[in-house]
Amino acid sequence: MAQGKQAKVLTNAQVQAVLRHLETRRNADRNKVIFLLTVKAGLRAKEVAGLRWSSVMNADGDIAGHIELTDRTSKGRSGRIIPMNRDLRKALEAWMTVCASKRVRRDAPPLPERSIISTERSDSTPAQVIVNMFQHWYRDLGFIGASSHSGRRTFITNAAKKVVQAGGSLRDVQELAGHSSLSMTQRYIEGDTDAKKRLVQMI
Asked: Which of 21, 54, 99, 203 is deepest in the core (most CB within 10 A)?
């Protein structure tokens, strides 16, 4: 993927702007989960669409401390375990309460087996629908160059910047992203000009 064609990385202010925007729209609880699954867990649109409640629930039926993403849900063999971000947990808890209280057809599977992302007309949501949602949200906000992949790039870039502080390495970021190689992870990371300047002065 050429650098010029990569999805835009969102700033913290833009992330908050998206969340405020979603609060004003229908299905706010669901849509916040969709957005946070990308920006706080690094999921692709395909992974968001395929995620089931069982992947985020513990044995007691509560939101677990991690997301268990299977190879089937992800891209190829990029299944992985992702620790649960606190903001994402709150959003999932709110959305789970809504889903558990909704009327469903008699032959509907129990909640753990259902897709997390559903619509008023369907029990599941195609990945392209989620891609289109992001296009609408970012267009409404005037974000140029942002797409459904922006949340994932933002997650990976932020993780790379903070991983040393957390006592880890880029290998941990690679595993969180579900990339087969470290070089692929590095292509996702957006550089920081000011950081480069400080780094050079430290050499």
From this structure: 99
Q: Which residue has the tokens 């797409």?
A: 147
Can you give the three-state secondary structure of 124-185, one letter per residue?
A: CCCHHHHHHHHHHHHHHHCCCCCCCCHHHHHHHHHHHHHCCCCCCCHHHHHHHHCCCCHHHH
Residue 158 in domain: no
- Whole-model pTM: value is 0.90
Residue 37, both tokens? 């699954």
Q: What is the pLDDT of residues 20-77, one digit of tens each?
A: 999 999 999 999 999 999 999 999 999 999 999 999 999 999 999 999 998 777 766 7
Give the CA count within 13 Å in the CB-facing half-sphere of 132.
5
How many domains are there within the chain? 1
Which tokens go with 146?
């942002």
